[in-house]
Amino acid sequence: MNDSHAADGARAADRPFIAIWEVTRACDLACVHCRASAQALRSPLELDTTAGEKLIDEIRTLQVPVFVLTGGDPLKRPDIFHLIEYCVAGGVRVSLSPSATPLLTRDVVARLAASGLARLALSIDGASAGIHDQFRGVPGSYARTLAAVRWIHEAGLPLQINSTMSRWNYDDWDALTALVEALDPVLWSVFFLVPTGRARRRDLLSADEIETVFGRLYDFSRRVAFDVKTTEGMHYRRYVVQRRLRDRQAGLPVPATPPWLGAGARERAPRAINDGKGFVFISHTGEVFPSGFLPVPAGNIRRRPLGEIYSDSPVFRALRDAANLKGKCGDCEFRQICGGSRARAFALEGDMFAADPSCAYIPQRATVFA
After folding, report:
1. DSSP code of residue 131
2. CB-based burial label for 201 (10 Å; 0-12, 13-18, 19+)
3. Interval 178-189: pLDDT, tens
């Protein structure tokens, strides 16, 4: 391991880089890929406002750079503006990921901007209403999303776009990327489906198809002004290392900074981040998980501080040890910068340390550096 890998690993063990709080599982959409299997009504077991403030205090103490309130739909919580304002008052930089429903109005967007929200993320999974609305399960979601984008720009809020790549939109790539570019986000986060919750195995792309998406994504990232990242697509980092090496050998220009550390590097994770390794997810009931897609609990913040769970729980400690990886992920020379999707391995193989079935790469047992 080189010095930068060691430094990334030390930071990951000490505190998370990204913390996601699922403030509720209530949502008025019925997305086919929803990891939470969200329902219309809020759970009485949700963390209440006082518990939420306590969690935010812990996030501030841990100095977590990226804190996101998600759901379900966070706008289903009547105290969501208070929680955002509590974050801002305490110096916690907070982002929000709401659903595009009638709850997301122009006035709400303006109020979110006035509250000090750092970023607002919307999901767009197709370049047409036909694809997006079918994916989201509710007619009109696409139109509401595009309207919300306009309001976000009007309010001066930074926009993040999230898209989940799956069988539903694989053939829509060119149109989807053209739309994303036209909407002018500060970040496009491309998720790769994990078959948990309502998501199904039949909707997964093959390993070879994902490799094709990586190539398209890399080319796209080279020509746009905003940042591009992947979620549950850790092996994109391996692809980038290989692609940069090939481009250098071919005499082509190669950016000094890899795409995973772009202009917004303060908000971008170090390259070693993975499920439980720089990333922590807190559920609506306070359960702590390595990610929202990996349903292996490590503790509950009602009974133990978040920092202790993250740094000391056997689940997180095991995930941060690359020696636990099995199969080709354990043999891979890129395991320190990738590590594979532990969530997808768990969903498909029943073992969070198994090889990631979505990766087409065959390890060469040689050390390669970016």
Report:
1. H
2. exposed
3. 999 999 999 999
Q: What is the CB neighbour count within 10 angstroms for residue 103?
A: 16
Per the listing, tokens 């370049």 go with 127
**Residue 263 clears pLDDT 50, i.e. is over it:** no
Q: How far is CA 75 from the centre of its chain?
A: 19
Helix (H) or strand (E) holding 165: strand 159-165
Tokens 């990610």 -> residue: 291
How far are the Cα atoms of 140, 208, 232, 295 from residue 190, in angstroms, in the given order?
22, 17, 9, 21
Looking up tokens 């969530």 gives 343
Phi, psi of 119 (to 5 degrees): -160, 150
Neighbours of 321 (CB within 10 A): 12
Tell me the pTM: 0.91
The closest alpha carbon to 338, from 360, 316, 317, belongs to 360
- E strands present in 66-152: 66-70, 94-96, 119-123
Closest CA to 79 of 39, 55, 101, 50: 50
